[in-house]
Task: structure prediction
Amino acid sequence: MIFLIMLFYVFFFIRSFFLSKSMGKSIVGENPIVFLSVFFAGISSLLFLIYLIFPVIGDYLYIIYFTPLLFLIGTILIILGLLTSITASLAMKDSWRIGINHQEETELITTGIFQISRNPYFLSFNMVLLGMILCFISPVLILTVSVTMILFHQLILNEEKYLESVHGLEYLNYKKKVRRYL
Result:
């Protein structure tokens, strides 16, 4: 399980690093919500890893419910999230960004996994976060994951406005055909 969470983040950061390096510039947008969402996602994941590595600490961090079945379901959700993130990231090719850079236009990707979800990478992150909650139901983890998901949703809403302004009718037609999440 520790390996899965680490793999999820390692893939995210390695993908960001190499894309940024190949483009010769940052792929991170200027919106402070980007940094807040990454911060809260990191805190959520750190709490989860602490629960895994030091189960005794779970008593102090208020794990209120744990069952092997929910742990299994959570693990499956984390694995699906990891696979979805890899699929979405590869489908975006050089259009992958963290946040919005208003000085840059990227290609509108509507094929592959983007025929199922307009935001498969955010969906994958949400799957991983929800999987973590199912593994260890804790008010602290629920709070940090909830804040992260609210911030992610705000990023999506901002991105939708941007894509509509850049891609116009093409994006509006795509938006009618494909749901935001699933």
Q: What stands out?
A: The chain has a mean pLDDT of 91.
